[in-house]
Predict the structure.
Amino acid sequence: MTVHIDRVRTFVYNFDENLQGGIPKGQVVLITGTPGTMKSSLAYSIIYQNAIQNKIKSVYMTLEQSRENLLQQMGGMGMDDERAKEYVHVLDLGLIRKSLTQLSAKGTWLQVFKMYADSLKHSVGYELLVVDSLDVLEMAAQMSENRRTELFYLFEWLRNLGVTSFLISETSPDKMFENKYDEGYLADGVISLKLQEIGETDIQRRIRAVKLRSTNHKTGYFSLLFSDGVFRATQVITEWSLSRWTR
């Protein structure tokens, strides 16, 4: 007997088809990669497309970039449909983070983060949450001695919140499952992005579902393309295939 699982589409063309339709609702998923791999853009695209296509409410919590800069950047990429404004809520926690990190005791910042997330859950009724980024949240919360335990309880708290969470992480996919990076084991899913050198002059973005619980998914890399406000996953372009196109 096949158990039906409600899923959240990423709306990355040809990627959901390889995830049995998308991300299982209620999971905590890491979007990880080095700078320049479009992690924030992908996370925003997921909630933006779900707003337009399915009228799903979401909250994007930015802990570094200002709300204005984020919306300006995404608008410049073509994600500026007026219909999304009713469903996508961007919360700038940067200034609060800076003041609390300097003035408060250990643990207070995490309590403030949870307070905002819980309050908005009741007032807005969002279903999708993006945290940009886990690295900054961890730094502000001063996780160190019992990092794995604190991350475990944070992820459990997010699941109990009743939303699907996307946590952006700067960790390189190659290091995600080293002992010091507990989040790779604790999260329900890991989507990794990377920059791959193709030949001597070309760089290609790639996307891969490293793990995704309750999902029979492909684990290999896809080329990640972006145009006209939409992400697409295609067959990986190799140096050999690139040379064929350029002959």
